[in-house]
Amino acid sequence: MNAPTITEPLTVAAIGDLHVTEDSQGRYRALFEEMSDAADVIVLCGDLTNFGKASEAEVLAEDARAASVPVLAVLGNHDYECGCPDRVETILAEAGVRMLGEQATVVEGVGFAGVKGFVGGFGRGELGAFGEQAIKAFVEESSEEARKLENALRSLRTERTLAVLHYSPVPETVLGEPLEIYPFLGSSRLAHAVDRFDNVKAVVHGHAHRGSYEGRTPRGIPVYNCAQFVVEPAFGRKYALLEI
Ligand SMILES: [Fe+2]
Ligand SMILES: [Fe+2]
Q1: How many other β-carbons are positioned within 10 Å of the β-carbon of residue 216?
Q2: 244 residues of the chain, pLDDT tens digit each
Q3: Would residue 228 count as lying in a domain?
Q4: Is residue 6 part of a domain?
Q5: How far, in Å, from the CA of 8 to the mean position of ligand 1?
Q6: 183 C-alpha to ligand 2 centroid (Å)
Q7: Ligand nearest to the CA of 165
Q8: In which domain, by residue range, is 217 found?
Q9: The CATH number of the domain where 142 resides is what?
């Protein structure tokens, strides 16, 4: 994708873990309006619905229609619970939400590439593809998400890109969660994919509700945990504001 050379920073409002339920009609409507006033683009970092039900996606889609700037999103693990993530994506896409995945997108010269990601652990604790077939399949899922991210990032020719995830690429932003569940909060494979690209200026993710806001990839790219439960205590609002 070619993009015009634009040097002005783009303001991104990022929020993860909305966990919309059937009875939360209108809960995020005012927030979409507020984020539209505060930012040039809104990014949703997964767990958009609580159980991945089409009815929950309809509730969120209705609120997302209140946005007056582009809304981009990745799904989270909760959006898979009912087994119809494609339906959730379609409903949101019909409301104008750009679902990231194999397809990256460009907004005002800034690239956005995103995937859900997967579990697997970090650094030396990363699970390897060894032994039982079930372990190999599990690790393959993690590697496949990292490959999809890498392919989406490679498709962008922008000077500045934001990587959007649900699972964390680094352990720093899950700090605060019980140590025992770190391997289920993300995967270093995602950080390795991001670190191959000089134009990635930041990574946003969600999932670790009790994690920490800020971290860095091994190459030093800033990583922000934008789960609303992490952002709100830090900033007094449910979304993070980033200049890319
Ligand atoms: Fe969540
Ligand atoms: Fe999650």
Answers
A1: 16
A2: 555 555 789 999 999 999 999 999 999 999 999 999 999 999 999 999 999 999 999 999 999 999 999 999 999 999 999 999 999 999 999 999 999 998 999 999 999 999 999 999 999 999 999 999 999 999 999 999 999 999 999 999 999 999 999 999 999 999 999 999 999 999 999 999 999 999 999 999 999 999 999 999 999 999 999 999 999 999 999 999 999 9
A3: yes
A4: no
A5: 32
A6: 13
A7: 2
A8: 11-243
A9: 3.60.21.10
